[in-house]
Write a structure and sequence with these properties.
It is built from five helices and eight strands; from the N terminus they run αββααβββββαβα. By secondary structure, it is of the alpha+beta class. The chain has a six-stranded antiparallel β-sheet with strand order 3-8-4-5-6-7. It has a two-stranded antiparallel sheet with strand order 1-2.
């Protein structure tokens, strides 16, 4: 299977796109942090580590870093957060442009998913920008 994040993403053919593309289809594993299986925050931590940036380990801890970004101002590489258990932030993914995000879900593993799908739209909590402009330019462009 060939994967591209596609038009509308600053990351098309970038370092982050390459890392994400290599993980598509990886199975979900609770507590997983490698290509043998990821949970949601293990996936985001893995992607960012592979482009030279360190994130906290859990979705709640990741939500505590960075700068809040409105949904209208999302850019590729922003973290998007969801309340999937009814008790605050419990899921995280990486915005990839075009209204979509990369995630590791318990039912499908690593996929690219639309933020407008009802399940995710109804559980959206917010987004954080964790990369400085300099880091963003380094990661977004080869």
């Amino acid at each position: 299977m060939v994967f591209t994040i596609g038009a509308g993403s600053a990351f098309a053919d970038s370092k982050m796109d390459t890392v994400i593309a290599k993980t598509i289809g990886t199975t979900y594993k609770f507590g997983g942090t490698s290509t043998s299986g990821f949970d949601c925050s293990g996936f985001t931590s893995y992607v960012f580590k592979n482009v030279g940036l360190t994130l906290p380990r859990t979705s709640k801890a990741q939500f505590s870093v960075g700068t809040s970004v409105s949904r209208n101002n999302l850019r590729s590489g922003d973290l998007v957060f969801f309340n999937t258990f009814g008790s605050g932030v419990s899921h995280v993914g990486i915005y990839v442009g075009g209204g979509r995000f990369a995630q590791s879900s318990s039912s499908r593993g690593v996929t690219i998913t639309s933020l407008s799908q009802a399940y995710w739209a109804n559980r959206y909590v917010g987004a954080k920008r964790v990369m400085s402009t300099t880091a963003y330019k380094t990661v977004a462009y080869d």
